[in-house]
Amino acid sequence: MKNQFKSLSIIAAAVFTLSSCAKVDSSENVDPITNQDRWITVAGALMSTAPGDGNGGTMVYSVSKEDARNPNVSINVYDKGFPVKSTRTARLQSSEDGNTLFNIAYSGDNGGEFARYKVNGAGSFTQQDVTVNISQYATTTPRWSKLYDGDKSGVALNVTGIAANNATDKTKSFQYYRGVATVLSLDLQNVLINSYKQYQIPLATAEELNGHCIFRLDAPVLNKAQNKLILGTWMRKYNPATGLTESTFDRLGSKSVIVDYPSLENPKVITSTVGFGDNSGYRSPNAFVATDGNIYQATQRDSKGSHILRITQNNEYDNSYVFSLDAALGVKGVYIDCWKYAGNGIAYALYTHDGTTQGYIARLDLNAKTATKIDITYDADLNFGQYQGVLVSGDEVFVAVTPVGKDGNIYIFNKKTGTVTKGATLVNKAGNHYIGIF
């Protein structure tokens, strides 16, 4: 593969005037812009073949923060919004000030194409004349996330070609199943590929002999020192005798991969003895650097219900930190679909649990290790499974809440006081649902 990447020209974008701007430590994973005059962009996913599948494409629409708060304002992203490039659900991120939308198209002819859009308000989004396609390195279906480094960088990830070491030569003794991991760094401002690395990532010998392997990498986060990337994993287990995947198995402790940054070299696996699920998230960031400098990471498909895990500034799991969402919420089988760190130890989680198929929202206190379900209007058709973006701006946390095929609202939570405000109405269509605010 080529190691030289040609920079693409950039069209300068007009900057939306900020009336006031307050920054926090950039090493803390909260949105630092606290001005009142930013765009609020909502995203909606279109149905493809089944209600709620979200595979028919993505629409976006932007309003002022004042309008987002106003319950008398109606937002119809499907009739008045802008279609973002993506055959299936777009993987969206936004700049800290809300003036730019970043997207990597997922699947299809343009899968893997990175693009930037200037947010103009309402359904007006101008695609800047700069693109780069990463599909030859990370396939047409990469996972990616913007790092908290002042909108400078993003990281795309993929694992391909999982196979046994003796797949083509059965005279060899079986040792492992492994795929080839790609870790790719994007320059979001100059729109070019900074660098990429590809390698196999081994587990412990005994784990590999039992058929365990890393199936997916996602949800990258930069540590406080900004010299290590922590990558979330989704694990898989094969039957070494048959080569078939096993749908039920004794899960290993939750694992993350640590690589040097910005070189992307020296992958190292770390393991939690607190969580027993994956920590790659699904469509949204899943790990954040908190005010205390530690990284907090959620688990999914955890045999003991979702946990919030802590990774110290030494880049190791802190197994003395035990935060079970089952215990905190008083239910069983909690599954975190999406969550967001809001600052000062407070976070908000979108989740479901055993005995129900609908989604709920909880306010988390990472320091006290408590969680409280928020009292909003819930519906049996509310599903956060594909949710992507929770916006934190100042003390306010914005979440789009729409049951599949039904109208809903933007909800605004005050991270300091815990108060809840029902904002603008989100107009829906049959089979569709809103999947984020950016």
Automatic annotation (TrEMBL):
Residues 1-22 form the signal peptide. PROSITE patterns: PROKAR_LIPOPROTEIN (PS51257). Keywords: Signal. This is DUF4374 domain-containing protein.
